[in-house]
Design a protein that fits this description.
Organism: Dyadobacter linearis
InterPro entries: DNA_methylase_N4/N6 (IPR002941), Helicase_ATP-bd (IPR014001), P-loop_NTPase (IPR027417), SAM-dependent_MTases_sf (IPR029063), TF_fork_head_CS_2 (IPR030456)
Largest sheet: 9 strands, mixed
Shape: elongated
Helix content: 25-40%
Protein name: Helicase ATP-binding domain-containing protein
Number of helices: 30
Structural class: alpha/beta
Strand order of the largest sheet: 18-19-28-27-20-21-25-24-26
CATH superfamily of the largest domain: Vaccinia Virus protein VP39
Strand content: 15-25%
CATH class of the largest domain: Alpha Beta
CATH topology of the largest domain: Rossmann fold
Distance between the termini: 47 Å
Keywords: Methyltransferase, Transferase
């Protein structure tokens, strides 16, 4: 594999595991959009179809599996919620499928009968042997919304091996993207852990709270569109919307209030008249219980205003159902858990055909799959909760295509449930945003994943740039491409802090070494670079590589405790594989308390509970690799690095020869590091330098300008005012609004520690001669080049991220002009 192919392999578009069908084999009853989706599904082999209510998901599922059986043979299975079986049977007759048998276990399979249907309860109980089927379709796959249960794990283990598998639903939940990732795992598109690492940054304070990386948004939506089709109307695929234009939906919010006893908080002693039912489950349950008569009375008043209309009433608790039934009497039928399947289906079918006016059920029981739009256009939620998927599914039992009347949705809630209502409506908006993202791609590119891949290939790095000074060159390029064109034996020393595997993506394009799914893939990319580093280095000279081992949290390693990934060992193996020899491993101390504060893995309290689960702090390392000299008589480099004993003293040698190097921690400052600081931290650091060193007006301006670049220079007060040395001048009145810095922090992504300037200085002094080319293939903001120029060498830096490259030019110019370094104060 050449390098370009390796980079293109990073583009993750779902593979096609199915087959092509002849268009004339499609049943003529299918609408144009249904024909396209069925062909796309079969060719993909494992796909998700997220089509809005009324677009014909049942027909598409049936036709997809009919054609798979026709081409490949074998049995096919439809798994659907309660009450949907009749829809499959009815639509199956339209397609000429014949009998679809309902089964409770696979012992009921019949010779010569390929079509079967079951419900999720039988899947949960493990009664269905997945190996008996060539294709399985999960209709409204609610069981896959959460991958933490034993039931779901069993589904993945068994149904995950069915050759053709599909998920159909109208409402993938906008619950922080987790459901979409779970579908991808079930369909075999991408492991959930890989998807989380690749696309999302996590909130360490809230489990499951995912934020899509800004720089990965485009890739994520194209990846999604390669295996999941989102369609809200036929025109999304370029077809006529006639018959699919929905009537208006009017939402009526009914807030009820009632007298409550005054509640006194035991801890604070404060009294409240209206509790917050969102504060705890007990409070929510109590509010439901006390408000029930008032909510049911409001429901009755709504129904009485339209006595000729049909209504479906939704509730969440059994005692709510009994109260609704009591008030509405025999005109209302209920569907509930303890009923027989036959009785449930009798009531469902009767209401859908207009045989009676009122139906009552829970959204969790009856919210999915049923078609009530032909005789009913009114829905009442006698109570609300946080379950958005159940809610939106229930809404669209009546508000769906083929509905001819304006629909009315009534939400009944109490004055203590305003937060629940706000959250529910917020999730609805997120759902609409999700649909919008996906349908816009479908509208632009259709169901053509090859076009998605072409669009993503445009994210490859192009457009090499360079800047030069008398003692340096800074190049904006992929380091593999750049070093492949360098002359043999042209570099005197390599000093670099390489990316730490896939821990952090520095650049938005696929060339970034951090843009790899695993450490193994990272080192595959390093395998393209390290041979060029070896070739370009002078014989006998050194590559000093800064690394750090990586923390593997329990969610990453699956062990339940934190462990360490020996990244430094992998780096050693990589460089040795390509001809380098390891000379030494220099250890640089880190602050164990600071590490614990940022990783929470070295807790003193946890250590006291069980010392066996706790490790120790992670130092940094500089790995010293040597390219062998041409001759082996005395092992000297072809061009030795020589020092006079006057200039390189015995004392200095003793410290440098030691395997343990201390560091001042001084680094070039860059905008991303500044973003990590509160303004109060900046002020403290500034006070320390301004009261102990000679004042430098130009440095003061430069630091202020740097703060302004990252939008941290206030407009209402001075962030770093001149400090007074006289006691008669008061300069300790802090006007720093620390919220400003705190807000800035919230948008931070992970940031790896750059190499310290004094460590770079020691490597350059020890391992290079004045005038040597000192190179860094991962130059960042230019620390190595900056230090090399200061020390009379020629700095050669290569950096992929254009913003960092521009910073590196400024630093190189400042070193050229022998100005003071803009360091971390």
């Amino acid at each position: 594999m050449d390098y370009q192919n390796f980079l293109e392999a990073k583009i993750r578009i779902a593979e096609k595991t199915g087959f092509d069908i002849h268009p004339e084999d499609l049943h003529p009853i299918l609408k144009p959009h249904q024909r396209d989706i069925v062909q796309w599904s079969i060719k993909g082999g494992r796909r998700g179809i997220f089509a809005s209510f009324g677009l014909g998901k049942t027909i598409m599922q049936l036709e997809t599996n009919r054609l798979i059986h026709m081409y490949k043979g074998g049995n096919v299975l439809f798994v659907c919620p309660l009450g949907v079986k009749r829809e499959f049977v009815k639509d199956g007759k339209k397609l000429g499928i014949g009998r679809i048998k309902y089964i409770t276990n696979t012992d009921q399979l019949e010779e010569g009968l390929p079509y079967y249907i079951t419900n999720y309860e039988r899947i949960r109980k493990g009664d269905i042997d997945a190996s008996k089927f060539i294709a399985v379709t999960f209709d409204e796959a609610s069981c896959l919304r959460n991958l933490e249960t034993d039931t779901t794990n069993a589904i993945l283990d068994t149904f995950g091996h069915v050759p053709f598998r599909f998920v159909h639903t109208a409402t993938p939940s906008p619950n922080r993207y987790l459901e979409l990732i779970n579908y991808a795992e079930y369909l075999g598109i991408m492991d959930r852990g890989q998807a989380l690492t690749r696309f999302f940054q996590r909130d360490s304070t809230t489990a499951g709270n995912l934020t899509l990386y800004k720089k990965r948004e485009k890739e994520f939506w194209f990846w999604m569109s390669s295996w999941a089709v989102f369609i809200t109307k036929p025109s999304d695929l370029g077809y006529d919307d006639s018959g699919y234009v929905l009537p208006p939906l009017t939402i009526h919010r009914h807030m009820v209030s009632f007298d409550r006893a005054t509640k006194v908080d035991r801890k604070t002693g404060q009294s409240t008249f209206i509790p917050d039912s969102s504060s705890s489950l007990p409070e929510a349950a109590k509010e439901k219980r006390l408000s029930l008569p008032h909510r049911v009375a409001k429901m009755k008043a709504i129904i009485d205003e339209s006595p000729d209309d049909h209504f479906i009433t939704w509730h969440h608790l059994e005692h709510e159902r009994t109260e609704i039934q009591k008030i509405l009497g025999d005109d209302c039928k209920s569907v509930f858990g303890s009923q027989s399947i036959d009785e449930k289906e009798k009531h469902i079918e009767g209401f859908s055909e207009g045989a009676f006016k009122y139906l009552s059920s829970k959204p969790s029981i009856l919210g999915s799959g049923c078609n009530f739009q032909y005789h009913c256009h009114n829905a009442i939620f006698v109570g609300i909760n946080y379950e958005f998927n159940d809610f939106i599914q229930a809404v669209f039992r009546v508000y769906r295509f083929m509905q001819l009347h304006e629909c009315h949705l009534h939400l009944i809630f109490t004055d203590a449930e305003l937060e629940i209502l706000r959250t529910l409506e917020e999730k609805w908006q997120e759902h609409l945003n999700l649909q919008s993202e996906m349908t816009s791609i479908i509208q632009d590119f259709g169901l053509n994943s090859d076009l998605y891949e072409y669009q993503l290939k445009r994210e490859m790095f192009t457009g090499r740039q360079e800047a030069r000074g008398p003692n340096w060159i800074q190049v904006n390029n992929d380091s593999v491409d750049e070093y492949s064109s360098k002359k043999d034996c042209s570099i005197g020393l390599i000093v670099s802090s390489i990316p730490f595997g896939n821990h952090y993506e520095y650049s938005e394009n696929y060339n970034c070494f951090g843009h790899n799914e695993t450490n193994e893939k990272f080192f595959e990319q390093m395998d393209f670079l390290v041979p060029h580093l070896y070739r370009c280095l002078k014989p006998g000279r050194i590559a000093a590589i800064h690394v750090k081992d990586r923390i593997r949290y329990s969610y990453m390693n699956g062990t339940g405790f934190t462990s360490i990934d020996p990244f430094s060992d992998d780096t050693t193996q990589c460089f040795r594989k390509h001809g380098f020899h390891l000379l030494s491993r220099i250890t640089i101390d880190t602050d164990v308390v600071q590490e614990n504060n940022s990783t929470y893995r070295l807790s003193w309290s946890e250590a006291c509970k069980d010392m066996t689960k706790m490790g120790a702090g992670l130092p940094e390392y500089v790995l010293i690799f040597r390219k062998p000299p041409t001759g082996s008589e005395n092992a000297y480099a072809d061009e030795p690095v020589q020092h006079s004993k006057d200039q390189y003293t015995l004392a200095r040698w003793q410290l440098d020869a030691h395997a343990h190097w201390k560091t001042s921690g001084e680094r070039l400052i860059d905008p991303e590091y500044l973003k990590k600081l509160d303004l109060s931290d900046v002020l403290k650091a500034w006070k320390a330098i301004d009261t102990t060193e000679r004042y430098d007006y130009h440095k003061h301006i430069e630091i202020c300008e740097k703060l302004d670049q990252v939008k941290m220079l206030p407009r209402t007060f001075m962030a770093i005012p001149p400090q007074a040395l006289s006691t008669e001048i008061w300069d300790d009145v802090s006007r720093v609004n620390t919220l400003n810095g705190t807000q800035t922090r919230k948008n931070l992504t992970k940031h790896i520690c750059p190499l310290q300037l004094d460590i770079i200085e020691r490597c350059i002094e020890r391992y290079s001669n004045p005038g040597d080319v000192v190179a860094d293939p991962f130059n960042g903001i230019g620390s190595v080049v900056y230090q090399a120029v200061k020390m009379g060498r020629f700095g050669d830096g290569c950096e992929l991220k254009t913003e960092y490259w521009k910073d590196s030019i400024r630093h190189a110019k400042s070193a050229d002009a022998k100005m003071s370094a803009l360091t971390l104060f």
